[in-house]
Structures are given as structure tokens and as C-alpha cells.
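Propose amino acids for all 358 sites.
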């Protein structure tokens, strides 16, 4: 089944690497962990001697601090701009620590406590009354009972009262099930249980976390990739892998990717590489968005004309990224292309600016 999944979880995608790390892992492990801290670090940052690929491009000290936080049983909160791979990092950490990353809660305005803690099989509930048979465990209860990492994506999109249902599990390490009686009414966290949450800095004001909940987390900020060459290599590798999975045999053109990454960085920072000021778009011009655009450019060129994507394809695909939040962003993008038209690919972008809608 996983052979045809669009995106298998990390423990499936990297099952061979996790097995090699477990085989060669002779270091002490925190209670309930599948790997030691050093082996978990190698899983995320890579190890050429064992054939372990690097999966996260960022500050290695961030990984060290995150792993230490998880080993202390405190919650880990990853914050940062959208598209900085917070969700990917939480998935990798969960796979390394627990061997499973699928105990995931997706935060949103409609998220309820039932989706976080537990609910009931109402047919059995009516027929037999409250029992462990009629109890339907949600990710938090399962993570506590099995001693695994629970991931809470976009926690600040949940209402405040829903967020605060984490207080007792994170502090007292217990979850009460008042409908049951006796020992079954209390679920005590097993060794290995903890929570990794994520929140976008742009959206933290949607439902600000309570001070009590903040105290139960260690906060770590995930920053955008600072180095151009590193970001370019990442976009090229990720876009190439996506194109291959989509049935495109032609790799993305590097000159087009160079223009794409440069444009994203300059529009994100509001400044060109030469230091000239430029319009900053209100939309998210992240590395993840750049990978998505590069993927779309390759698909457009290959399936419509049988060739790698061109600068004209890039302009068409950029429009869908630039105009998400503010219609004025298209005008800003047009002005940017008019100013930045030196060089073959930039000139081609300038000439294709009429493909932008509006």
C-alpha cells in the first residue's frame, strides 16, 4: 500500500536508514527512545559513513537543543515563518525518537478535544455503556499509553480552551477518562511520551497560547535558509525528486532554478543581492513554495511540450504563488521583473511578464 502512497511517513521512507542506525547504535538511550541522541542526530543531519542522508538543512545546534528538550520530557514548540520545514523536522524527530511519526493532530478552528484525546464508539456505548471496548483513542491518549511522540501541527489555530487540554498531560503526565471507573479512568504517560508542536510566527496571533501552556514547552525558532547555494541545492534536489515521482524524466534546468531561488530570496527579503531595495510581497516566498513552483514549472514544460520548463513557464507558475494574499502583489511582481531584467533568463522573464494575470 505504501508503494503507491503520495508521501509515506518518514519511518517508511527511511526504514533502511533507521534499521542501520539501530544496528550500529551502542550509545545509551533515554527511557522509551528507539535511538540514542547521537543516532537520532545522525538520522536528521546525515552520516556518510553509514549511508544516512541529510534530511534537514539548518543549524545543527537546533537539532541538539530539540533532542535534549525531548529527552527531558518537556514539550518542544517549533516556531518560524511558513515554509521553513517545521513540520518536516517534527516528523523526523518523532520517527527517530519513537520509530513512528503518525500520531499527529492537525490544528484548526474546527479541532475539538475529542480529536486530540479520545471519543466513543456510540453503538457500543449505547449497548454496553462506557468501557475500554467502546473507547476510541485519539493521538494524545495513544501516545501516552504507548510511550510515543505526539505531533501537534499548527497549535495556535486551535481555540484556547482546546489548546489547554494539554496542560495535565504535559505537567502531571496523566489523562483522566471520567466516564470510566477504577484504574481504567486514568491513563498514565509511559516512558518516551512527549509532544512536538508547531506554530507559524505569522499566525501566532490567531489564538495566542496561554501562559500556563507556554511554560510546558521549550520554544525553538526555525529560520529560513541563509545561504543561497544551500537553498539552490535543496530546491534542485527536492524538485528533481518530485518530478521523477510525477513521471517527468527531464531534470529541472539549473539556470531556471537559479533565477527562481534568487527571485524568491529577493522578494522575501525586500532587497536584491546588490543591496537595492525592492517590493516585498505579502505572500509567503519560502523555500517550500520555491520547490512547489519548480515542480510545477517542470510539469508544465514536460507534459505540454515535452521539454524542461522555461522562464515563461516560471512566470506563469509564479503568479499563483504571488497573488494568494494581496492582489497588489501581482503589480509588485511585475515591477520587480521590469527592474531585474539583466541576463538571459531574467530578460526572458521580463519578456514573459504579460503572462501574469490582470
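Proposal:
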Amino acid at each position: 500500500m505504501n508503494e503507491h502512497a503520495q508521501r509515506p511517513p518518514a519511518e517508511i521512507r527511511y526504514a533502511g536508514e533507521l534499521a542501520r542506525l539501530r544496528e550500529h547504535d551502542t550509545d545509551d538511550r533515554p527511557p522509551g527512545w528507539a535511538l540514542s541522541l547521537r543516532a537520532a542526530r545522525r538520522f536528521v543531519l546525515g552520516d556518510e559513513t553509514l549511508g544516512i542522508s541529510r534530511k534537514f538543512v539548518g543549524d545543527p545546534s537546533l537539532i541538539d537543543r530539540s533532542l535534549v528538550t525531548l529527552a527531558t520530557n518537556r514539550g518542544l514548540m517549533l516556531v518560524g515563518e511558513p515554509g521553513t520545514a517545521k513540520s518536516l523536522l517534527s516528523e523526523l524527530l518523532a520517527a527517530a525518537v519513537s520509530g513512528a511519526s503518525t500520531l499527529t493532530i492537525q490544528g484548526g478552528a474546527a479541532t475539538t478535544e475529542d480529536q486530540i484525546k479520545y471519543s466513543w464508539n456510540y453503538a457500543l456505548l449505547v449497548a454496553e455503556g462506557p468501557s475500554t471496548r467502546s473507547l476510541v483513542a485519539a493521538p494524545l491518549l495513544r501516545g501516552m499509553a504507548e510511550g510515543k511522540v505526539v505531533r501537534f501541527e499548527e497549535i495556535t489555530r486551535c481555540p484556547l480552551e482546546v489548546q489547554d487540554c494539554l496542560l495535565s498531560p504535559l505537567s502531571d503526565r496523566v489523562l483522566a477518562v471520567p466516564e470510566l471507573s477504577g484504574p481504567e479512568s486514568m491513563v498514565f504517560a509511559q516512558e518516551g511520551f512527549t509532544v512536538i508542536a508547531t506554530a507559524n510566527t505569522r499566525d501566532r496571533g490567531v489564538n495566542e497560547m496561554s501562559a500556563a501552556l507556554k511554560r510546558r514547552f521549550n520554544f525553538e525558532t526555525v529560520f529560513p535558509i541563509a545561504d543561497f547555494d544551500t537553498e539552490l541545492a535543496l530546491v534542485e534536489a527536492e524538485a528533481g525528486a518530485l518530478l521523477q515521482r510525477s513521471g517527468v524524466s527531464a531534470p529541472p534546468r539549473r539556470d531556471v532554478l537559479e533565477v527562481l531561488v534568487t527571485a524568491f530570496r529577493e522578494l522575501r527579503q525586500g532587497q536584491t543581492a546588490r543591496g537595492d531595495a525592492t517590493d516585498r510581497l505579502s505572500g509567503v516566498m519560502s523555500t517550500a513554495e520555491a520547490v512547489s513552483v519548480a515542480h510545477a514549472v517542470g510539469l508544465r514544460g514536460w507534459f505540454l511540450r515535452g521539454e524542461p520548463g522555461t522562464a515563461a513557464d516560471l512566470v506563469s507558475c509564479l503568479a499563483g504563488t504571488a497573488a494568494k494574499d494581496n492582489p497588489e502583489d501581482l503589480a509588485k511582481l511585475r515591477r520587480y521583473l521590469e527592474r531585474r531584467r539583466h541576463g538571459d533568463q531574467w530578460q526572458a522573464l521580463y519578456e514573459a511578464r504579460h503572462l501574469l494575470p490582470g
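The beta strands are 75-80, 104-106, 118-120, 135-137, 149-153, 174-176, 186-188, 194-200, 217-222. DSSP finds 17 helices and nine strands in the chain.
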